Amino acid sequence: MRRSRYTIAEMTDEGEHLLYNTANGAFAALDDAAFACYETCAGTWANDLARAGFITELTPDEEQDALRRRIARNRDDHGTFTLSIVPTYACNYRCPYCYEQDRTRIKGKMDEPVMDAIVAFVRAHHGQDAFNKLAVQWYGGDPSLALDAVEALSAKLIGWCDANGVAYDALMLTNANVIGSREADIIARCRVSSMLLTIDGPEEIHNRRRVAANGTNSYERTMHAARLLRARGIFLAASMNVDRVSWPYFREMRDKLLAEEGIALNAGRLCDYGHTFGTPPFSQPDFDLFTHEEFCQERLNLFREESHTAEELRSLLQPITQFCTGQSGDYFVIDFKGDVFSCDGWVGFPENVRFNITDDPSTWKPSEIVFDAPLDEKCGPCELLPLCLG
Question: How far apart are CA 165 and CA 157, in angstroms?
Answer without folding.
Answer: 12
